[in-house]
Each structure stands twice: as structure tokens, then as C-alpha cells.
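Quick bug: CKLF like MARVEL transmembrane domain containing 6 output formatted oddly.
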Amino acid sequence: MTSEVYSTTTAPNPKSSLCLVPSEHLDKPRFLVKVSEVLLSFVAFILEEVVNSCVSCSALYFFEFVSCTAFLFTLLLLILLSTSLHNRVGITCWSNLDFIYTCAIALFFGISSVAFAAQNSGTDLEKSAVAFGFLAMAAFIIDIVLFIKTCGFPLKKGGKQESSNGGPAAMVAQPEAEKLNPPANVTS
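Here's what came back:
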């Protein structure tokens, strides 16, 4: 009898979970790729930080900047897109931001990894950092390919017009084909 009186009064809300994957901005495969981007860029950054001396420090510093930036900003983007926090930020073009950021980091990781591979003293630690830099670049390229496969190319010119009220956008107003009734002869 006690169990009937004190039954549960609230139902679980599946949308209240912390992680919202899959969501409109991030599906499960891209979520896993973004996690690997974070981990690979973090390992590349840590390996680079452990290097004691450098032959050409400018390549080392550029690799350090790119790997650290990739780690921090990809982690931030991952947290924003996989939780409801992206709704609280005033950004509405998440797909464009994600695509442009991922392309830029892939490009910079490629450039910095090539530069660091060409200008290092050849220690195993430096070679490992370069290898993780190239692996991180490959993860960012895989993310770009998955993005284009699932969402299409976000920067198309002449695509569909977006509506401001939720309905389909009107292209061009067509002139009316039916003429108005002529005015009736009014006698006074």
C-alpha cells in the first residue's frame, strides 16, 4: 500500500543528459574523430614541450603554437558542440565555423609538421612529435571528409536561401495572371 501512495512523480528527460551526441551539429563518427584530434594534438604538444634543445627554434615554436592552439580550440569546440552550451553562445553558423576552423588547423598542422620535420636535430622525441603532428593533421582531414559527406559543403554560393520565419523562402514573386474586375458603372 505504501508503494502506491509514494510512486515516482517525475519522468526521466532524455534531453537533459550532459552529452548531446548525436546532435544537429555533431554525429557520433565526427564526435569520435574530434576526440582523436584533441588527443593527438595534445600528445604532439606534450612531446614537443619535452624537447630539450633545438637546432632551428622557429620551426619548433611554430609547431608548439599550432599543436597547443589545435588542442585548446578543438577541445573547446568539442565541448560546445557536444553539449547544450552552443545554444548559450550567440553564434548561429556552427557548421561554417566548424568547417573553416577544421580546414585551417589541418593546413597549419601540415605546414608546421613539415617545417619541424625539416628543421630538427633528429632525436627520437622530435621524430615522435612530428609523427603525432602528421597523425593529428590526418585526423583533421578525416573530419573534413566526414563533414562534407554528412553535411555537404557549407560555403556554397547560390545555395538555398534561408528563411527568417521558419517557412520556405520565396524566390521571386511571380506576377498575377488573373486581371482585376473592371469597375462597375456607378450612376448617381
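Actually, after a second look the formatting is fine. The radius of gyration is 27 Å. Closing.
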